[in-house]
Amino acid sequence: MKKPLILALGLASALLLAPVQAQVKDLPRAKAEAVGMSTERLARITATLAADVEAKKIPGAVVLVARHGKVVMYDTVGKIDPAGSAPMTKDAIFRIYSMTKPITTLTAMMLVEEGKLMLSDPVSKYIPSFAKMQVGVEKPDAAGKPVLELTPTRRQITIQDLMRHTSGITYGFFGTGLVKAAYADANLGGTDMTNEMLADKVSKLPLAYQPGTTWDYSHSTDVLGRVIEVVTGKPLLQAMKERVLDSLGMKDTSFYVADAARQPRLAEPFADDRNIGTNANFGDPRVAGKYESGGGGLMSTAMEYARFSQMLLNGGTLDRKRYVSPKTLGYMTSDHLGTAIATTPLFLPGPGHGFGLGFGVRKVSGEASFPAEAGTYYWGGAGGTYFWVDPKTDLFVVFMMQSPKQRVYYRTLMHDMVYAAVMK
Hints:
424 residues, 11 helices
């Protein structure tokens, strides 16, 4: 046998034995009219966004619309970084912030399906320091100044509470009050903080509400990320990759973008539009840290999040791989608040909506100030990204942008203009 042939056979064997890494691949495409939508009306979205780029309202964006399993719009506008000249690209990497929550929650629900976790479990089963939490209640002192009085919880926080934001845990950068101020002062989530350290700090802070009584947006999903680590014995990203990211081909979805080759693809906001909340600003994912925030730390691209969305729309499967059962996904995307759980003026989903496990859920087609069918589920990120899945219309949308100031406006705009393009 000749030496080149031996080398070739050896190389082939090595390739066969090497671990196979999934690569992201585009979803199938179709003309809008083939799936009951209007090309002309979808083009209005691109034109509107391009005009807003010209007017310097946003630096750039990527929009992906899919129906009946086919992508009918996948457009870019503007620049990837307003400080430079490079145009926005379809593979641009965005800080998706709270769009991390659905991925974290799905990972946890896969553990539930495997019998390794139960929604009724107290969080203290996995993080013992959560066994004796206290609730902070504001009361006036002798001078009429509000002070915090601590009272015991009536029951422990459960895994379900973490998933639906009814744990009593809160955010320090969202709203006011002495408990929220305590969270802000705790400096939760620095890059040198591990998930274990964050959970330990949260367990020592007062709760804003009794567990299971009130929806309050919070670090709950960050704590859920730590639960995943305890159950799997692995860092959160590794657990996500093994169950969700790698097989979906989401190779650019990670907590940091430390490799120099990918850094030119990082989308950036305007210099004066980097604030995502009280004392909270855009971080720099180019420097890898220890913190892997299950509630808001991931970076991703439009197509990678589209593959995640299509898997959800398919009832938990994509490319012949099953992630969760359709019954599990249906349970996650049902309203878990009902009438027993209170909401506050800061209830982000708003009129016509409830909240499931990791997702906001549309309860009725009316009431909200923008169109969507009942049963639609969704969430967005503080940096401007947004997605929704509409099973009744068999449609999903991924909108990637970096502009905290404009995030609410464009969520409504996208709903108005996308549904205007649905013809049947």
